[in-house]
Fold each of these.
Amino acid sequence: MTILVTGATGNIGRKVVDHLLAAGADDVRALSNRPERAGLPSGVEVVRGFLGRVETLPAAFEGVDRMYLAPYLPTVEEVVDLARRAGVGHIVDLSGDAHWVPIARAVEKSGVDYTHLSAGEFADNSVMWAEQIREGQVREAYPEAANAPVAMDDIARVAAAVLTQDGHAGATYTLTGPDTITRAERIRELGRALGREIPVATVSEAEAVAVLAPAMGEEFARWYVEGLAASIDDPQRPTTTIADLTGRPATTFAEWAAANVDQFR
């Protein structure tokens, strides 16, 4: 069974490749814009292509049974239609909140068997605070906003499980971390990992957007900050989906912080 991983050198796609190999998959194909720089494990077939250039995809899709679809909005309808015509039998997509809903819709519209992985905020997004932590203080509009941040590695672990097992067609899996915690609590956990307290200053929405805009872009930063307000009174609740599908609990934020602390030094 040939499994194609798109975005195979991205933050999640690269981990999907690793988890597929760990699960015993022996025919993994990886889509990379620059195969010569991919640095993927031996035994993985690396093919040149990019979801944003649909004309590069036919060869990559040939003979593929199942595919992990990375979240790329601009060409998603063309990509999934091409996958259907190439005979891809099952698409596992990363969709999630409102921003990524068009991906799930396009996949369903294609008529190909699908599994949606609906993830909330990534624990890895906490790297947005790295510069502020190094400067000595984090500025937050809504430090009491809460969710259940999920580790990218856990998402990849689920994707690999779904791609290598039967019985997941038509399912939508909501993926979260194991605990609902506030943003202030996340910053405290990062402080524990660093061995020092990290002060948090409550600022206006406008200032919080200005802090994040250089990395996110102003429009996305505004959408992100405004969305935090709703999670104060209606925080995201954790699911057990990751443990249910993989047999291993989801990564706690404290575990993620300890494993990634060097990014904040």
Amino acid sequence: MKRTGPLIVLVLVLVVIGAVVGNLLGRGAGPGGGDLKQIKAIIGSEKERFFADPEVKAALAKHGFAVRADAAGSRQMPTRTSGYDFAFPSSKAAAEEVRAHGDPKGDNVVVFSSPLAVATFKPIADLLQTAHLAAPDPATGVWRLDLKALAAANRSNLKWTDIPGNITRPVAQNVLVATTRPQDSNSAAMFAVLLDQATGGDLAAVAKLFTDQGAVDTTSEEPFEAYLRSGGNSAPMVLVYEAQFVDHVVNDKNADQQETLIYPSPTLVCEHTIVPLSADGVAVAKLLATDPELQKLAAKHGFRTADTALTAPVFAKVRPGGAALPATIDGAVPNPDFNTQQALLTRLEEKMK
């Protein structure tokens, strides 16, 4: 008879040892070998790559934290904060709304910023210039998209095929910037603010620029990913945060040399703001805003930090249209407060029905 008893015991011992080791590795260790505090955050999708970065995870772990970040549209967050340690929408106005509907445990904290921009392609930029909708700034070479002219062109249903000499995009579709829904997403809500100013409050014209798009996504990362995948076939112009484009060009090996960036005129700088919802959320918010390593990593992902010396070497690697990224955003529209923005979006939603 074979002696199976000792073998069974050995197998059981190995299983137990493996389980213990796996548990220890899975829990991670904070400063001094202690367990990491597990933090749950709800964030704008444009910050997913930042929180997924192993360097960011390691920097947070040095302070004893591990952050699990779930993405949502900034304007969807107020009803989704239950169980989270902090919310991280993409503007002060969106943070005010989260704060009004939630149970904040500390002051709101601005962590970094990023202006609105339009991701497109060099041949498309040339077409826009032919249509008198965009042009490089004579002084800096930075491309600007004239929102007043865009709204007027859309009012007359200008199509790509109407642009003289167009062999780049011979498609009978209206010339539009692809966006998310203003009711869901901060980027589209802020774009509505810019369009409202550019058109002198012509909400019918603003609404048409959104409704002519048809069905749209709810988070800012979705249309940007479609832009990257399609090479302009489905989305020749996409509303983005500047940080998304910079992050892609600097950190992705597959960046296309034809991809370029245009700034809407007027534009607006969005201040990405944390609403702490627990004591740990207060601590992580302060850490993200003040820790030099984490701020440097934010710059690596294209965000503008309070210390411009952190962003300068990153921005030097990006020259859309051959021009340097603007060190400052001059003439930006002031960020609206929550009540002002909400009043505009309520009126806009009525026009979009």
Amino acid sequence: MNKTAIITGSANGIGRAIATAFAENEYSVVIADIDVTHGRAISESLNNDNLIAEFVECDVSDPASIKNLVKKTIQLFGRIDVVINNAGLSEFTQPNELTVEDWDRVINTNLRSSFLLTREAAKEMKSNGGGSVVNIASTRAMMSEPNSEAYAASKGGLLALTHAMSISYAEDNINVNCISPGWIKTENYDDLRDIDHEQHPSKRVGKPEDIARACLFLTKPDNDFINGENLVIDGGMTRKMIYEH
């Protein structure tokens, strides 16, 4: 029986690359997204390549939808081994104009959902003898541009949630880690300028596949000594000191 991975927000962008990578590595993949059209399209595309994937419509800001996602996954594949909490909003609003409703929507989508899905999935992982969770945060958890308060708070919360849950679920043999991507170009990569690439110590802007490979690495059973960590994948940008001359 294949291991099963749930990837939220996997109809597009980074999530899509993660779903593809796990399917190509012989996982049964659940593509969980609110985007029905693209979610079904990637599922069908993977199936056409003789890979195992099913789309489950899910609004991660809705606790009932999360419970349904876990229930559907068990009905489809009978087990859960990996959860990638990738779904998120990245809307920026000037602080004086940020409503409580918009704040809650970002926090509930980006942060609360990761707690709720991990908690639901952990019950099933425990029955399998353990599992692995990866939360997709952001380098914006540690550095900011203007008007990113809700987004930064949600991603900073993911870093803290990661190390807290890694301790809480240790007895169940469930590892919880985090990835903080930097600039990841999800489409039209060839439209980038030379200066976009050259400002990175690694001399290029990131691609969704860079994050997908890291997810595979962190969820590999042989790497179970990595636990409660945040892996920054940004081409070295957060290590680069910048001065004006």
